[in-house]
Amino acid sequence: MTFSERSLAFGGQAVIEGVMLRSKTHKVISLRKTDGVIVTITEEAPSLSEKHVFFRQPFIRGPPAFIETLYMGMHSLFHSANVALEAENETISSKEIGFTITIIILVSAFFIIAPFFLLTLFPISGWLFNLFEVGIRLGLFLSFLSLISLWDEYHRILQYHGAEHKVINAYESRTPITLTEVKQCSRKHPRCGTAGIFIVMIISLLLFSLLPQTTIWIRLAYRIALIPVIGALSYEIMRFSGKKRSSQVVNILMYPGLVLQYLTTKEPTDDMILVAINALHELNKTMGYQIV
Question: pLDDT above 90 covers what percent of the chain?
Answer without folding.
Answer: 19
